UniProtKB/TrEMBL annotation:
Its cofactor is a divalent metal cation; Mg(2+). It catalyses: 4-hydroxy-4-methyl-2-oxoglutarate = 2 pyruvate; oxaloacetate + H(+) = pyruvate + CO2. This is 4-hydroxy-4-methyl-2-oxoglutarate aldolase. The keyword Cytoplasm does not apply.
Amino acid sequence: MTFATADLIDDFDAELQSCETQFRQYGGKSSFSGQITTIRCFRDNGLVKRTLNSPGEGRVLVVDGGASLASALCGDLIAKAAVDNGWSGVVIYGAVRDAATLATLPLGVKALGSNPRKSAKDAVGETDVPVEFGGVEFKPGAWLYSDADGIVIADRDVLA
């Protein structure tokens, strides 16, 4: 289903939060949506890899990487696993790598920037906890809608 976040704000303003963080678009899908799953981690993508290698069922993974650009939390192999497992998109409050390849994948990927450096793989962090950045609380089970204008969050699927 197609949507525009600006139109969603016009139609459902009282129900939506708008993320103020200015992300860069890296994935091949510029518009994506789905229920939120969350991870909080810092310079360690073990939980990201584990999660995106599990069934996505159209969900969006939101990763609070503490805004660190020191190492990438997602690259081409993990993003390809996300596609293969049915994830709609990934929003990373941190860095990605393999940007040229990410742009070819049918996956929404937004991040603060890119860095070729690998992260640790110890799976240190938390899953399915509320995370906050850009003036928004991303709660597991809420709905995320993302396009070229930005990211909005709703407690329910406003497109249903």
